[in-house]
Batch of 3 targets.
Target 1
Amino acid sequence: MKVLRVDETSEARRLVVVQEAVPQLDVGEVLIRVHAAGVNRADLLQRAGRYPPPPGVSSIIGLEVAGVIEHVGDGVERWIPGDRVCALLAGGGYAEYVAVPAGQVMHIPKPLTFVEAAGIPEAFITAYTNLFIEGALQEDYRVLIHGGSSGVGTAAIQLAELAGARVCCTVGSEEKASRCRELGACLAIDYKQRSFEAGVREWSPEGVNLILDIVGQEYFERNVGLLAPGGRLVQIASMSGARAELDISLLMRKRARIIGSVLRSRSLAEKSALVAGFVTRFLEAFDTGDLKPIVDSVYSINDVEQAHERMRSSVHIGKIILDCS
């Protein structure tokens, strides 16, 4: 099969096509013929050598795919060859075939193409996990989502709004702000034009119940200050740096919680439970149109360099997808 591998001999660490054997199935796995793969910022980090896969996981880049099941391994009962599916991966997506634990696989909703479905697993499972499991989101919560126009951000806005929460988000342009409002955000703040802290305090003077943050160091103190009593800050990335000071007395007075969260390195059992929970509560909403993957752009697998450059530029709104068909 064809696989994209990092050329570690080149200064740019370019991705090159190589031929490798089709993965062998372990018990409980399915083999998917990949038609489309999602591009994530984690792909760029892994390519740069700064985000290695967990032990025992494929070193091929790629955290989500959509395609057709070719074979099922021993112990798999739910899936059969020919099923149209999308899947959450710990690695291996930039390839013609990928072996995936059956519990991390979802049916593709009927209205969606492979390209659209490839934008579901990483973004929506990440958003679901951090809003509802880590963040304990409830109806009428006020939620602040940083990076609202990202893949995870566009998923989180939709999920929170569908669950009855009120959403504010930060973005880097008026175009992104407009798109986030279309998706259900009550307020989208262009942080390049005004203080997001002032905007959030005006919108919700008593603070917000839940914050999803990808920025880290630069926003940490302001995030804690914006929490309502009993609020939760869920840290899902640290793009501006991983170290910050904390006013412990403020945290105590607010009775607030700071939660660190990752998805890729969770156990198979955890990820299967998260996928199952998301499927039960939300997957049908893609059939009705209440949820939709937001596809920014689609690139041929041969144009992966352009796809990565668009991700690196942060101008995208929603998901960048590789068409592997």
Note: The mean pLDDT is 97.
Target 2
Amino acid sequence: MKASATLRIALRALRRNKLRTGLTMLGIVIGVGAVVAMVGIGNGAKSQVEAQIASLGENVILIFSGSTTSSGIRTGWGSAGTLKIEDMDAIRREVPGVAAISAEVRAANQVAAGNQNWMTQVLGESPDYFTIRQWPLKDGAIFTEQDVRSSNKTAVIGQTTARQLFGDESPLGKIIRIKQVPFVITGVLSPKGLSVMGSDQDDVVILPYTSAMKRVMGLTMLRGISVQTESAKDLPHIQQQIISLLRERHHITRGKDDDFTVRSQEEIAATATETSRILTILLGAVAGVSLLVGGIGIMNIMLVSVTERTREIGIRMAVGAHGRDILIQFLIESITLSSIGGILGILLGIGSSQMLSTFAAWPTVISPGAIAIAFGFSAGVGIFFGFYPARKAAALDPIEALRYE
């Protein structure tokens, strides 16, 4: 029998029971829609994390000072002053391939301007910090190396801090006070948004690190050092050189633990995106269960259909149809159910994702790969769960089928 004739017979059989066909298809529609939507949510979370990691800059290595231990309590990296300004100078001088470097100290402080005040994060940085973080200014200019050498009282502030202290007025040239020390605002940063940890990156005041250490925080040691390499391929090599140099400078002998930690941007990104990747897999697996249930529904209905149409199958075989024709007919019915359900499910998943983005402000990313996998899986479900009923129909004895009531 011609394939076109077999296809027409299969489609006619599906149209004969529209309600049952629709309800059977509904399981696949919900399953595929859930897979597409859940994977889109997971990918959206992953892309958001990747964008936040990228906001750290390109080809960045972060160096943190050591931790302290008191009464058995370890306070974490950065709590102990083990990095010196001389360490930063040595890295700049002795490690080839370093494009930019910045010292860092930080503390939360109350900042006042006029009759307004605001608790914000105060950072002490080098001028290279803005290059490393790829953080342009909206207005004004950054402080200079001369400001660092002279510990000048200049500051660059973020959008949130500017809004809280000055409202809609321009803060350029105005004075803020940190621990009663006046600083002149020379620049306002462009908005950066939330960090990987969910904190507001625009809620910040950035000072020359020497000014922050001497005039505000009373520190003699650094909390950390940020290094930018000239190319991504140099990251592992330069990271190892930095570790070796700091161990030598800190007189750390073989077998002893470092009093600092060094992390590349690639390591930070891998750690941060691993959670999102697991979330995507978990959401996809949960949604895949509903697709599996839809496939079982197809098998159930096809088995019922074989039983109901036993006499029809016997008549077809009696007039010359082969077992192969019967097998193909029922497979086509099963694949048609799952394929149409897959297309409708994809549309449902995309629509649901867009609604989540619009009304719940939840980031979603629908990738063509996820759509292709969902559709291919739905078609595979039709073949897998439709094969047994089709094979059962093809194996019927024509004489017994004609006698069936």
Note: Residues 265-308 form the longest helix (44 residues).
Target 3
Amino acid sequence: MITIGIDFHKRTSTYHVLNEQGQKIRRCKLDNNRDNIRNFIGSIDGPKQLGMEATMNWGMFHDAVEDLVDEFHLGHPKKMKAIAESEIKHDRKDAETISRMLHSGFFPEAHVSSSNTRRLRSLLRFRHFLVKVRKKIRQQVQILIDRNIWPSDRPGSFKDPFCARGLTWLKSVSLPISERHILNECIDSFETLSNKISAFEIFIAQQAIDLPGLKHLRSVPGFRLSKINAYTVLLEIDIIDRFTKARRLAHYAGLIPGEDSSGDHHRKKGLVKANMYLRTALLESALVAIRLDNGLKEYYKSVKKRCGSGAGIVAVARKLCYAIYHVLKEQRAYRPESFTPSAADLLLFAGSPLAN
């Protein structure tokens, strides 16, 4: 099988082609347009496999050549150390390295999602961006309040300044002219973004209504009435069979602690850096799940007692992640688990006044 390695950039791409024996037969650099790419790939006779590193616009290239190649391989950028750590780095060398890795079978694969999945996921990620911007506006308003109004002078009838009563108070509170102007702009931006996010959510629901696995995911606590988080989980996971076990999915979601151990040296680190969209959806759903599922609620209390509330929410999110894996993998409804206290919890309870 012919092997094609591509170093893909925004305006140009470099191609390195190997025959079945691993010998170079062609190499060239082309301007990026659909006709150029298709003409070059189509001019190579015989069965062929193509490999490229995952970039921001890899999907556009994939859709242009998918029907021309027998196998399309996407390289995981963080695992392609042969390119990232190379002392001699240029386009021709990178394209050759990709083709050699693919030909030898040591190509670090990344998941290739369908064009429909990518489009729906882009909608959700843009909504996530809008929510982050709105959150920053809320933070700016809170800072403005803290630097201008004493806590004793604030109304006690609400906690959130962006609830209905809070917004009414924000619009009428007396402030210096410059601060009043900033607050007005923040309120206008907040209301505009809130309207856009609501409209976006309606559009997303119309597009993602028939997602496979949605029925089974709805049975998991925290996702029964969820819209956006349920869609996010399904689209970020995409195909559950690409994860061989539940822990791999939890690692992909960034809910597994990192570790740096060697010999007698053992050191735990924070949560691994992974898919932030999936992790956010699971953490938000965990906050809902502990109010709906007694087993998860008791588990949260157990971890909170030993490690704090933050660790408890992460632990519940990890349990949800494991449950989602089995629900989607086995195509069944969620089965609640009863909570069994650990030995440490039993010892704590034995020493409490309630045990007497």
Note: Residues 345-356 have pLDDT under 50 and may be disordered.
